[in-house]
Design goal:
4-stranded antiparallel sheet, mainly beta, 55% strand, 0% helix
């Protein structure tokens, strides 16, 4: 039943890898594996809150137009309605635990 | 706006320290700091899902009567209605990122 998060790491050459780890009707937990230079463009969720928690590496995150650099052990919340995005501007892979509540509808 | 999770670590001699990191109407994110020998007794939330993610150390978690040992980098989901608890049976402090969705009502 437990999830070994680092066993799920997978870097993709063409774009950020978004790996679904687990979820319920109340939340979704993803792992983002971001190679140097890869990014997720700023975007908005109308009815979902998102939390980023950086597991490895560092990245430049945008939140409501402001930029923050986050590294291992740091977290950031993007509430519903607030534009957010990220970019790996460092030399190492950026691994992020990403919680979305409630889960996005498909 | 960012949260430096490890700056929030605080061990209490008498019981597990539950530190509120952040939250919205959709989720709550806590840091549990569990000294060796400390535990959270098995309990049930009727309408909240919980995710544990172990940041440091190792612990014995119970989920629906089964036991799992989790260490750094491992996660476990306790869905609403399922009994769950934990104990630090190791020699080192156990630090856990704990997500609850939606947040518990007070």
């Amino acid at each position: 039943m437990k999830i070994k998060v680092f066993d799920q790491v997978k870097l993709q050459p063409d774009k950020l890898a978004k790996i679904a780890l687990t979820g319920t009707e109340r939340f979704q937990l993803d792992l983002y594996c971001v190679a140097p230079g890869q990014a997720q463009k700023p975007h908005i969720h109308d009815a979902q809150d998102k939390v980023y928690y950086v597991l490895k590496g560092a990245g430049r995150f945008s939140l409501a137009g402001r930029e923050e650099t986050l590294k291992e052990g740091e977290a950031l919340v993007a509430p519903a309605g607030v534009e957010h995005g990220l970019e790996n501007v460092g030399p190492d892979p950026l691994l992020i635990l990403v919680l979305v509540a409630p889960p996005p509808k498909h």
